Amino acid sequence: MADHRAAPALGAPAPAGSAEDVLSSNRRVSSPFMVTKMQREAAKAWDKFYKAHEDRFFKDRHWTDREFEELKADPPELIHGDAPVLLEVGCGVGNTVFPLLEKNPALRVHCCDFSLRAIELVKKHPQYTSERVHAFVYDLVQSRDHGEMARALAECAAWPPVSTLSLIFVMSAIPPDDQLPVLRALVQVLPIGATVVFRDYAHADLAQLRFHTRKDAQWSEPSLLSESHDWYRRGDDTMAYFFTRDEVQRLFDAVGGLEGEVEEVVKTRTNRRTGAVMERRFIQARLRRVA
């Protein structure tokens, strides 16, 4: 579970009209049968994706330590002075993990994904070493018992406790009814003082608008999966969710024991050749476990 594979290219023009006008159009909703089928076969869809693209689709995320100071090579504060340990869930093929390992020689990383093929690609990476990376298959939705994650982390008993949990474009790939149980189970494995960093897609992001400007054939299942949530099916049968800032705030409040800020980040770029203006919207959060 990683980035939006259906996100438009940066050169794609913004849809005409206001964002809310665009989102109010083309509102056909997929059948309950398709929604159930997608959730049941989500891991298979991601395995097919990695079989087709391997590690060639996503760019490495060299920006994460600029956005989150907890991921810097010299973080301002660590638990009990221990070396930093990151828990990266939904790691894909390591596009966040390996740039951070290169910048921070002291960092160690637990990373998991529910695609076996993705984890196999992580382990084939030239920077992979078991002394610094513990990669394992883990289904966030099915494994709601935090004890199962705790047992996975205990496989590296000599490592310090996790200092940072990263949720980078992960929760958007999880069905809305499963988001709170998944988040609660993850936070429960963190020690007091650990940090959660979060970034995901926001309501009215360009990628969401394009779901509504792309007309579905009448005989096909529509992309929209819910009348009450910004939840969609991509062309490769994986899922995409677009959050409001208040939704994310409510999720973290419901988990409890966390303090920090949740904000909406808007990034605008203009294509110099076409003049197209592209507005990307993200929800970003940094919280510390205090109880």
From TrEMBL:
User: Which keywords, in A-to-Z order, does the entry hold?
Assistant: Methyltransferase, Transferase
InterPro entries according to UniProt: Methyltransf_12, METTL2/6/8-like, SAM-dependent_MTases_sf
One BP term from GO: methylation
Q: Where do the segments described as Disordered lie?
A: 1-23
Keyword presence, Translocase: no
**Record-level Gene Ontology MF annotations:** RNA methyltransferase activity; S-adenosylmethionine-dependent methyltransferase activity
Q: Which residues form a coiled coil?
A: none
Instruction: Classify the source by domain of life.
Output: Eukaryota
Task: State where composition is biased (Low complexity).
Answer: 7-19
Known Pfam families for this protein? Methyltransf_12
Quote the Gene3D superfamilies the UniProt record gives: Vaccinia Virus protein VP39
Which protein family is it in?
Belongs to the methyltransferase superfamily. METL family.
Biological role: S-adenosyl-L-methionine-dependent methyltransferase.
The protein's name is tRNA N(3)-methylcytidine methyltransferase
